[in-house]
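We treat protein structure as text, and this decision shapes the records that our systems exchange. Because each token names a local backbone shape, the row as a whole describes the fold. For reference, a complete record is included directly beneath this paragraph.
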Amino acid sequence: MGATGSISAAHAGTITLGDLKVNRLGFGAMRITGKGIWGPPADRAAALATLRRAVELDVNLIDTADSYGPGVSEELIAEALWPYPTGLVIATKAGWVRHGPGVWQHNASPRHIEQAIEESLKRLRLERIDLYQLHVPDPAVSFDASMETLARLKEQGKVRHVGLSNVTLEHLERARKIVPIVSVQNRYSFSDREWDYLLDHCTAQGIAFMPWGPIAQGRKANEVVEKIAAARGVSTAVVSLAWLLRRSPVMLPIPGTSSVTHLEENVGAAGFQLSDAEFAEMAAVAPRPMSLRG
């Protein structure tokens, strides 16, 4: 339990990312930017307060990307938290470029990645990024070339560990032949389980799985979550996140928000336990198709 009281990300237990150990409930910093994940937040003070409160609640993994803003999320993290407390892991990504609100374009070329990491290091005020992730494979670029670039950055000491996002099992296994992979970040929730097989593979291999879009979506899913949440007197977000934490020991949810109130609700899931019957009822909800983004 953290000094802040009964709400603490430490209640979720820990997971290792290579030689790093973090609490098994992180924070996703996409939503602290403006509308359409573009530009500065409508309430800068609230965004900074949310980041600072996350650390107070023992969140020691913050996930972001150069494309969030673009650049805005990384700048806010540094403004709020630098000099960073001991043990705080900042994870970021490269592979999307932005030209406007809601507009995303692939670019995972070696040249772009090499430029992107330099810019991320500068914005985050770091000499090395603890977890650097390929945000999405680029259909116009050799996947192996993208991964070889990340491996080279690791050898140069600019990256401590490498992760993947929005990938298939084939991508994961191809990448592992080039450089060690400590994490995978795909869209996943109890009602959105197309990547079950990839999660199971990560579980067997001890690779952290960071689900984006972790909160329930869809009418039937919401009905089940709302019923359990009402019966237990908690938010629907807590129920959704608690299911994920129980689903696999390598699960590392990174729910995002720009609200301190919602952040505290989300972190409350770390200490919430579903009953066997509740977990099974949620698992029985039919998964729905998903699409990559994040």
